[in-house]
Amino acid sequence: MDDTFPPTAVPAPRTGGGAGYLRIATEEAFATPELIRIWLGMVGDYDDPGFRSLWGFYGTSTAERPRFVLESLQDLGEKRLAAMDAAGVDRQVISLTSPGVQVLDADLAVAQAALANDRLAEACARHPGRFSGLTAVAPHDPKRAAAEIERGKNRLGLHGVIINSHTRGEYLDDPKFWDIFEAAQALDAPIYLHPNTPPKSMIGPLLEAGLDGAIWGFAVETGTHLLRLITGGVLDRFPRLKIVVGHLGEALPFWMYRLDYMHAATVRAGRYERMKPVELKPSEYLRRNVWVTTSGMPWAPAIMFCREVLGPDRVLYAMDYPYEYLADEVRWQDDLPLTVAEKKRFFQANAEELFGLPGT
Amino acid sequence: MDDTFPPTAVPAPRTGGGAGYLRIATEEAFATPELIRIWLGMVGDYDDPGFRSLWGFYGTSTAERPRFVLESLQDLGEKRLAAMDAAGVDRQVISLTSPGVQVLDADLAVAQAALANDRLAEACARHPGRFSGLTAVAPHDPKRAAAEIERGKNRLGLHGVIINSHTRGEYLDDPKFWDIFEAAQALDAPIYLHPNTPPKSMIGPLLEAGLDGAIWGFAVETGTHLLRLITGGVLDRFPRLKIVVGHLGEALPFWMYRLDYMHAATVRAGRYERMKPVELKPSEYLRRNVWVTTSGMPWAPAIMFCREVLGPDRVLYAMDYPYEYLADEVRWQDDLPLTVAEKKRFFQANAEELFGLPGT
């Protein structure tokens, strides 16, 4: 692995379809300057050690990568387009970065989500061939979140929903949030379940060792969230819901056999009030309702494994710009042992179909 | 998957090497009646919700599987041998089940570990062709733990060490525990890092949804522990340490690329006092110091993935008896797309070499 930063590799050329496919990156981050300012004001004392760790770092570190991230997140223009050109990315599906508005009080969160969505929609309108976006919401106001999903889809031209995992320690398997799923299913809007740092009730041994972030804590936290949706019955109540998960599904594909075995054993024994029988096995929900992207996981063995166990229609390309920006990673995925038609599915067609993106 | 219990499949015959290899199961559990009695006395009020969840269930549930587990754990004789015969397992490498003595006060823990080791050694002496064992220790008394490792190896004829992950919320990357590693390395005794339920500071959203146990929480907790050993410098200080991890490495093999990338980025940025530079990449420690077993993961895609990314010498068969006891699982692993020589490595030779077991 090239661990220099910024990347030194000669970038792959933007394909424009010349390779037989476009590259659509599906977990690409931005933030409004307003929201970053609010976060930085909270870093000192907000009662969420994961948030303080994450934005204390990206907001104030003087090291090269976090400074690049902080600056690049706030750009929805030429700098981003140049980075896409340099890495060979034709289109980004852009979403509000973690933790989004989910750490704010509900009224402020609703307003900041709307502002972020307006800004993102404007950028997409300026660059319709390069940018698409997802709708940010304040899950802690489920009714207004549902209304914002409708506004994002029908008025702003956005293509799904971004939820940065837990909201102040709460998870979406709680039925009080289900207006969000109702709206997303009715509008056929995929929900991208993006990582957050683990909540205070989970972060202890992770933060203590510096493992609370993207190295490990994100996966632990967001894998937990996805599994809660599955075992909590959300996908029985909303069988057409589409959930997108980065980092190759936060390892749930790796665990499919064990999830099925232990879920069946636990339900059969009646061990938990909160784990009632559901209609399908966990692995069956993964293959019916879940799509995974390769954000942060540009590694052929794991990508091919997920294609094998989930099916080729469920694995999509993502980069995770600007957190992960390495031209080599694009090339490694160009070099996957796949035909051009399979690569078109992986880099382009799955994303176009799932998010309803404009065709070429 | 057959989710009936007890297993209804026709069992595979014990091979006795007739298939070209013996089947050595390497993560097989027992408990002394004395320790179970102590645990059950603690279930009401011990300040560890994961312990209360785990042993409240196995100790008191009237459902069929937990009753089978509770009874089978306490047998080191005919019942276990019959189960091995029925499933086609030639040898078990047996260890004290989770959380072992690690929830007890240190003096009691030391005494109960010694008792468990004596009992296990006696059973192994009675059935030297069928049973081998690992040494239980009280990590919270590191000096006496080191002495017990020496006693287990040199006087009891045991073949390694079992540590059931965290000890009262503490992790072994803390240098105060390193007498244990010193002894294990000096005696060439592999340490089996077995799951525990997440500690109080981590279990919040897991327990709330019934995900604290083998379905997910075990992996989260023990994967965290292994990663702490790697990023905390333990394997620089003890480069010949051998760590064995069940459940195909608690998914760390799946994450190898991301662990390397994010570890390098985090260290480079100086983000955490507790994450100092180490000599190798996380993936390099996994390939040098870590062996993984298939306990609870009898699933060809994940097994073959781990063989691919770790190498065939690092993946060993395990069943996880009596928690997981299903004759079909043995047959599925007999049917892995491997030659007889490769299966001998997987089922037999890797275990014989790693644990120094008596040859055939």
Summarize this, please?
Chain A contains 16 helices and nine strands. With 360 residues, chain A is α/β, with parallel strands linked by helices.
Structural features, described:
The structure is a homodimer of 360-residue chains. Chain A has 360 residues and is of the alpha/beta class. Chain A has one domain: TIM Barrel (Alpha-Beta Barrel). Chain A contains 16 helices and nine strands. The first copy, chain A, has a six-stranded parallel sheet. In chain A, strands 1-2-3 form a three-stranded parallel sheet. In chain A, helix 1 packs across helix 2, helix 5 runs parallel beside helix 6 and helix 6 packs parallel to helix 7. The longest helix of chain A is centred in the N-terminal third of the chain and has 21 residues. The radius of gyration of chain A is 19 Å and the shape is globular. Chains A and B meet through helix 3, helix 8, helix 9, helix 12 and helix 14 of A and helix 3, helix 8, helix 9, helix 12 and helix 14 of B.
**Average pLDDT value of chain A?**
95
Beta content of chain A comes to 5-15%
Q: Can you tell me the overall shape of chain A?
A: globular
As laid out across the biggest beta sheet of chain A, the strand order is: 4-5-6-7-8-9
Please state the second-level CATH architecture of chain A: Alpha-Beta Barrel
Quaternary status of these chains? homodimer
CATH homologous group name of chain A: Metal-dependent hydrolases
Radius of gyration of chain A from CA coordinates: 19 Å
CATH class of chain A: Alpha Beta
Give the class of chain A from helix and strand content and strand pairing.
Answer: alpha/beta
The count of β-strands of chain A is 9
Number of helices of chain A: 16
CATH topology-level fold name of chain A = TIM Barrel
What percent of residues of chain A adopt helix (DSSP H or I)? Answer: 40-55%
> What is the succession of H and E elements of chain A?
EHHHHEHEEHEHEHHHEHHHEHEHH
| Biggest sheet record of chain A | 6 strands, parallel
Protein chain pair with the most extensive contact, residues per chain: A-B, 75 and 75 residues
The number of distinct structural domains of chain A comes to 1
Query: In whole angstroms, how far apart are the ends of chain A?
Result: 33 Å
Low-confidence blocks of residues of chain A: 1-11
